[in-house]
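Reposting from the mailing list since nobody answered there.

I have sequence plus structure tokens for a pair of proteins and want to know whether others read the tokens the same way I do. The first protein:
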Amino acid sequence: MCEMETSFHWDPGRRAFCGKYNSQLQPTNDSVMKDERSLSLWPFRLAHGTTTLGFIFQGGVIAAADTRASAGGLVACPAVHKITPIHSHLVVTSSGSGADCMLWERILIREIRLYQLRHGHRLSIRATAKLLSSMLHPFKGTEMCVALTLCGWDNGPKLIYVCSDGARLQGDVFSVGSGSPYAYGVLDRELRWSLSKGEAISLAREAVFRATHRDAYSGNNVDLFHITAQGWSQRKREDLKEEYYRDKEKKGKKKNDKLK
């Protein structure tokens, strides 16, 4: 799997990706030397992180993510969209390099639309994941960092993780990004098939909140999508500060009850 907190080697002018690899996708000696010189001029190594998650329950599929885009110790943007609708029954959560993720989401939307126009029906989610994996595999070993989780519905709920090295995994729960260990801690404790829609939404929001509380690269807001046989629906974006104060108030009430 692709480690989302892997350091990103920044090159002035954003020429690193284009100039570093020849037609066989192998680094040239000149480009490697240039990269080393540029890195020596940059004061710190840029790292990026995020918290995204998706899980299946009896009511469909839940996808959730924070909204903070980071560049090392900097908050580049507090309100990005890390969940992108691909079509009426499929959304993807993205983690990794922001530019790479946006590019491949657009490519995926284009390919699915072209397939539908050519064949008269939509590509299945499993086939979509296989197509994406095949397109990403040639870039294995490069600095491209993309991790997309396909959350959708066709003949039942589907949850498939695809990474920039071409890895493709299907499961019932995935969390990706630097905040994922903290999110998994909440999901492993509370997740079960019999959750109601309200309980599932509350669990996803809680998992993202806990991750952002501990992970400096995640934060600000939480976006949440619910996908069923009728398609996806988006919950209104929530500020995680409100979740923090709700949690603090809840703990205060418990403490008062114990004192009584």
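The second protein, same order (residues first, tokens after):
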Amino acid sequence: MDMSDITLPGNPPIAVKLRRSAQARRLSLRLSQIDGRVTLTVPRRLPEREAIGFLRDKEAWLRGHLEARGDDEHIAIGATLPVEGILRQVVPGQGRAVTLGNGTIAVPGPEDRIAARLQGWLRTLARDRLAEASDRHSAALGLPYTRLTLRDARSRWGSCTADGALMYSWRLVLAPPQILDYVAAHEVAHLAEMNHSSAFWAVVERLYGDWRPARAWLRDEGGSLHRYRFGD
């Protein structure tokens, strides 16, 4: 597999990762909602001019989706980000604790530590919320989990292993509370059904209720939670 970089001219120009694959039989264009990366996969021997022509044909679609995704938000004083679904502006804090105000989140300390300190606070809040939700759903199901860990996972919001270990993305604490609760119910349901059968979804519905709106929110809006960059 060969990878190279090309640029689609325009205002602004769009950087595209060109991926040549011996298995590809047609051109396919992918925009990552996580980091905004554009990847064009093409058959190995396709001339580059044809790849550029394909991009030109898709330019309006691509620019529309890039605009809808928005730019990454680098966390610093003055930046905005959601906390439990409520958009807040980062402002300087007093004392030692991160505090929530009316549309603000106050973070004390030197400016070069603001992002790291806020990320640590958010991870602690996420652990508290996810442990509470997991405990509640586990008790309702009558099946215990073995441990709970947090990661900044890019490909999934949560997982459950065969030995009952739960993993969640800490970024769920940025989403509205019902979204976090749905993911917890989803993963705890795997303690009973290690699949996505109709029996599994019946367990999710018993624990959470109608899960379809929350699942649709994650599909449509979840990628935006990865726009917030904490210096990583």
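Reply #1 (J.P.):
I read it the same way you do. The two ends are 28 Å apart (CA to CA).
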